[in-house]
Amino acid sequence: MKKFAYEFVLLGLIGVVLASAAILDPLFLSQNVQLELSSEIWELGLLTLGMTLIIITAGIDLSVGSAMGLCSVSLGLCMHANLPAWLCGLVCLLTGLAAGAINGTLVAFIKVHPLLVTLATYGMYRGFAEGLQSATTNAPVDASDGIKSIVTGGFPVIPVLFTALAVWTAILLRRTAAGRGLYAIGHNEEAARFSGIPVARLKFLIYTYTGLLAALAAICYSARRSATAEAGMVLELDVISAVVVGGTSIYGGRGRLIGTLLGVLLIHETRQFVDWYWQRSELTLIVIGTLLILAVLGHRFLFSRNPQTQ
Amino acid sequence: MHKWFSLIQLFVVCGLVMGCGSSPESDTSDGASATSTNAGITIALLPKLKGISYFTSCAEGAKQAADELDNVELIYNGPTTASADKQAQMIDKWRLQGVDVIAVAANDPAVVSESLRKAQDAGITVITWDADAQAADRSFFVNQATAAAIGGGMVDVMANDLGGLDAAGDVAIISATATAANQNEWMQHMKTKLQSYPNLKLVATKFPGEDQNAAFQDSQDLIKKFPNLKGIFGISSVSFPGAAEAVKQAEKTGEILVTGLSTPKDMQPYVKGGEVKTVVLWNTLDLGYLTVYAAAAIRSGTLKPGATEFTAGRLGKKQISGDQILLGDVLLFTKDNIDQFDF
Questions:
Q1: What's the pTM value of the predicted model, to 2 decimals?
Q2: Of A19, A36, A140, Cβ closest to residue B92
Q3: I want to staple A292 with a disulfide (CB 3.0 to 4.6 A). Which of A241, B2, B119, B308 is the partner?
């Protein structure tokens, strides 16, 4: 029980959000509202899977939202050129893979600080996305037909895919040498290298994996709305917040996927309810930002006996 | 850790009790409990974006109308950037909340189309204002002025300020979002009208989005690229000040004239400074006011398709042509009268 104390705190907080919703506007909790609003949770969820791995190694990826925008535009351009849906999807995935690999190469092999690398690509990827869009279609592309029917058809592709990836990521983290390697890197990178852990390769792989997840998130988003350069705008705030609120230490070495999933649920419900009830688009950002700061302070208070967080 | 456990248990118990206590009844409420008041009409007013003075003044007028109509509850919310996707997301939420009317100034008719259709299917009255959506997705469009009056008006103003029928030189257009139906239609009429002035040559059209900084940069590029540039049209409320600022900073005041659509308050410094001689616009307060009156009348059934006029509070009788409710003529602001307008 004690091991999962933090996760219980999260459950409690989710309960508080839902309880407030129940008091202020019960309609928010009705099944069809929750079901429809849940369509927005998958992109957030997918991106946090990669972000958890990265933050466990004491890294960060600020470029996830921008990479998602770039992938969405690449998808839109292919749809615009009337390519078959599978090919559009493939191009989108390759774009994400490339975006992640660029981050990975710079962080792992050229050894630039991830904050700098991904801040740069945060600007670059969004710039490429907007430039490509305004140079070609100059407008969002309707990604209906092929992609949309796959994603929103009868079979819940996205939830199943997300669950599979979440389980796979959790197993990777808990049950494999690679997973233990990631924690080791987060605790002490130098020591990890000396104990024979392939630090550079692992780092490269997790940034690339995150790029791939950004492409999947872009497909979800584009099927739901449209293929556009604005996909994933300020989503990095939610993603990093969900992971940190979920108990992964920003200093690396600690974090669990189950916490991240609860963090995703907490951020999602909070964002949706604030949006729903107060009807002020700017308020949501303030609330999520506040949650992130409270989470960091909470970590400090809870784990203050551990020198890692000092 | 013990204090933490007790705190956690408190949270969980609170959550469970409150959650179970009140959620099962939620399906029985048929309106938005956050928004609906007895038998009133809830109107959700969606601008292209929040936080620019054009739409803020429209919202001001809308609030006045909502106060006058005592059975109307007004929700005003929009994206913080001119994003059609965010608009679609908000429309979807309003449908789930069960508002009565959704009035949209669409950033992209194609992107909001599905959400508007779903809202109509759910029994919500959908109208558009300021920027139209696809005709099938709404019942009425509250139009600020005819596109011919706005587009043609801007060209006439520019030509007049540059020397009448003999006006000569290069001109350029700084539009807004490439998908916005209103700007695109105005540009059609501008191009037609420009044919009356054979010596004015349209050399470029830019789409910076609803973004003053981007409009500023686009204007700077144009000033460098076309040495014979005599006039810039800024045809959105943020493109116009962006273009005027670019002319000012390039020290081309008096050489390059800027005109376009924006609020008198935003343009006042440039009219005083000489970059702008005439500002074209309509009364934005009245546009918001008329939209709310029309929304309430359509919802309550007093305004039906086929009507040719309609009385909107202090504005009196307004003409309807087809499915468009017309606000009226454009207003021209010059340095002689711009101080008299407070929006």
A1: 0.84
A2: A36
A3: A241
